[in-house]
Amino acid sequence: MNKKTIWLLSLLFTGICTFGCTENREPKAKYVFYFIGDGMGVSHISLAEVFSNNALSFTQFPVFGLVTTQSASNIITESSAAGTALATGEKTTNSMLGTRPDSTHLRSMAYPIHEAGYAVGIVSSVTIDHATPAAFYANAYSRSDYYHIAQQLPQTGFAFFGGGGFVHPTGRNNDRPSVYESITDAGYTVARGAGSYQLKKEGAKKMFYTQAQGVESDLPYAIDRKEGDLSLPMVVEAAIDFLYDPKGKGFFLMSEGGKIDWASHSNDAKTTILEVLDFSDAVALAIAFYHKHPRQTLIVVTSDHETGGLSLGYTGGYDMYFDALASQTASIDADRASTEDVRRSNREARIGWTSGSHTGTMVPIFAIGAGSSNFGGKMDNTDIPKKICAAMGIAF
Predict the structure, then answer these.
(1) Could you tell me the CA-to-CA distances from 257 to 37, 116, 124, 281, 386 in Å, in that order?
(2) What is the pLDDT at residue 2?
């Protein structure tokens, strides 16, 4: 065999190897959805599926794992410490937000993603200065320092914020400059309600999308929703609409179903179930997007912790009686007088609760799409943002 033949065979072999390796390499995630069901444990998911007699959108994902949730200070975490872990990849002490236990600042994954040229969106069904959404853009020694947290939002330059408003938009004593003034000064378009969003989205460079004028709070529970109210699926749909640019680098969207946790703190089973189903509907919108861009999209669905010690079963017996929940038409929070009736219907339905707070159990994680194979098995909550950034090819 002469030298020319050897050279040609070598070149051909190299080309085949290069082509094969390129074809088998998993593509980078260009569009990333990070869903966090606050307080949502495996029992929450099971209860919602049994109640609705349908599988939730994300439980059909091919990749499943379990996530440990303890904070730097406690076996049982609270939301700001868990949010910090899910956003920064590091543990902190309960009640601290975006800082280490020694008070030095941490950096959310959203910042290097933004700096790499991706559009970034942060969405929640609770106020946007609450623990989980705030962990993706703010640093505070106390999660309750709402005004200080909110004033960091316009400095981010992130493309889209949506959902609830702010706890103290003009400070705890209503004596500070409005956060909304800071937002508009930073170039954000503020849309209040669905009609306002449709009118203002064209030409807007950055968007803050929240409830109608005069409603300064979280989004209402699904069970309490009235005509004109926003829902988590509506805000997620708007975020996808705003962030997607076929000529752009891509986007990262964190969406929190925050009121699963609140309903579980109240041990309000029907309200909890409907919040999980609403969260599933929001994920379904991401799945529809995934089907249009399957090789470029990653969807990750998880939780920050379990709330309530929820169980399918109360006292003895092997049956559940969901008819006992039929008469409930409002949440405990909306109608305090119904508290005992709600608790009684829980017991009659055979739905149990062990706590009005969080528990330390592992929570589930589901994934599909580009880079999803790295989310199977057992992991810590600090691993998740690192795995997402790795799937995007971003150093973090």
Answers:
(1) 5, 27, 6, 11, 22
(2) 57
